[in-house]
Design goal:
Radius of gyration: 21 Å
Strand order of the largest sheet: 3-4-5-6
Order of helices and strands: EEEEHHEHEHHHH
Distance between the termini: 40 Å
Helix content: 40-55%
């Protein structure tokens, strides 16, 4: 099973349905793409998608928190006066999905693969470095700001398109070509982009 979700980088992409593994709302899970190259064993080199939550109502992921490099990075930041509670961290379960065949970056069903147990130990090291870097670079905080920006853009585009479509009669809408629909979508995107630049 899979669902279509919006990614700021790829637009609407087909993502896995994790509802059988995740008790909460899967649509609220965040996603990050990881590409592993030139690592041993060679079988580990491919693309992965990680899915996770930062919902404050969920417990902190203690497995990720226990990584030595992650603990060290957090200790360094808190030693300078920062507080762990004031930062975002991964909460609840952390999912890592292996993908194959980069010919279609948006189709999860065609690319999703199970991770062989023999690859889990080396992947732990990669995940540890990734989580450490995310903490040091304040990636989760930046992702929240980015998501809020694209959410605002999406709402503005939708409002503009609805206003434009309201000026078109039902008969004209029913006979509207796909090309015209794309033109309206493009016009909504251009208008929204201009408004966002003016507000900055």
């Amino acid at each position: 099973m899979s669902t279509d979700q919006f990614s700021p980088k790829y637009g609407f992409v087909t993502e896995p349905d994790l509802s059988e593994l995740w008790e909460g709302d899967c649509s609220k899970l965040k996603m990050q793409r990881l590409v592993v190259v030139e690592m041993d064993p060679p079988e580990i080199n491919t693309e992965y998608w990680s899915f996770y939550s930062i919902d404050p109502n969920l417990p902190v992921n203690k497995s990720l928190l226990s990584f030595p490099k992650v603990k060290s990075a957090i200790s360094k930041s808190t030693a300078t006066g920062g507080r762990f509670e004031d930062r975002l961290f991964y909460r609840g379960d952390y999912f890592l999905v292996r993908l194959e065949d980069e010919t279609d970056k948006t189709n999860f069903e065609a690319r999703g693969q199970s991770i062989h147990p023999s690859l889990i130990p080396p992947l732990r090291g990669i995940i540890e470095r990734h989580i450490t870097g995310s903490w040091e670079d304040k990636f989760l905080e930046r992702q929240v700001k980015s998501d809020a920006y694209f959410d605002r853009v999406g709402k503005m585009e939708k409002a503009f398109k609805e206003k434009l479509m309201s000026q078109i009669s039902p008969e004209e809408r029913s006979s509207m070509s796909k090309d015209m629909e794309r033109r309206i979508d493009l016009l909504a995107a251009i208008s929204t982009s201009a408004k966002m630049r003016q507000s900055q």
